[in-house]
Amino acid sequence: MVISLATRQIVFVIIYYYWQRVLFQSTTGQNIHDPVQVTVEEIYNESEEEYQALLDAVDESLHPRGPDMLYDKFAGFHPTPNSVVLDLGCRDAAHACELSRRFGCRVVGVDLIDANIARAHRRIADGRLEDRVQVIQGDILQLPLADAMFDFIWCRDVLGHMSDLHLTFATCARVLKPGGRMLNFHVFATEMFARGSG
């Protein structure tokens, strides 16, 4: 029996989702669908030093590979200067700006948090990328974007914040052009993996 790549990716997402639920319940004693006591705004509304420490910790999650590993994977999609990329949960637009620099593509970042949008506007202006990178404030579950608008989606460390993964993936499918592709990376924060076993 031959299983297509698309089927394997869907199976992985389903296994990942249920594994994450089990891990969350076993470590916190709470149901993953119970209301969370901390908001996304509280997580990402820290000082610049705390914010940089968070980004450094996220980059450390790629160990032993470096932070460029995800860009190398994205290059396998063969983006061009005509490609339009959605950066889902763009934070400070660091990835959006780097995608545009490396591949010449146009990038639209979406984030919910006021502080992240302000950081993103500063980074885009500092990099003089206003003609290639745009950020908008919005809820990923209710994207204010047209159908079939994007060639690719970049999604790093965002899915863990989503209350409805089915709706999240349906929204991604809606805004992707036919044949479009999505790169998703998510950190597993657990002692169950040995260091460097990713």
Throw out a few tags for this protein.
single chain, 198 residues, 5-stranded parallel beta sheet, 7 helices, 42% helix, disordered N terminus
- Largest sheet at a glance? 5 strands, parallel
The multimeric state of the shown protein is single chain
Q: Could you spell the SSE succession in H and E letters?
A: HHHHEHEHEEHE
Low-confidence stretches: 1-16
Judging from the principal axes of the Cα atoms, what is the shape? globular
Helical content class: 40-55%
| Ends apart, CA distance between termini | 28 Å
| % residues in beta strands | 15-25%
Label the structural class: alpha/beta
How many beta strands in the DSSP annotation? 5
What is the residue-mean pLDDT, rounded to a whole number? 78
Query: What is the number of helical segments per DSSP (H or I, 4+ residues)?
Result: 7
> How are the strands of the largest sheet arranged?
3-2-1-4-5
Radius of gyration over C-alpha positions, nearest whole angstrom = 17 Å
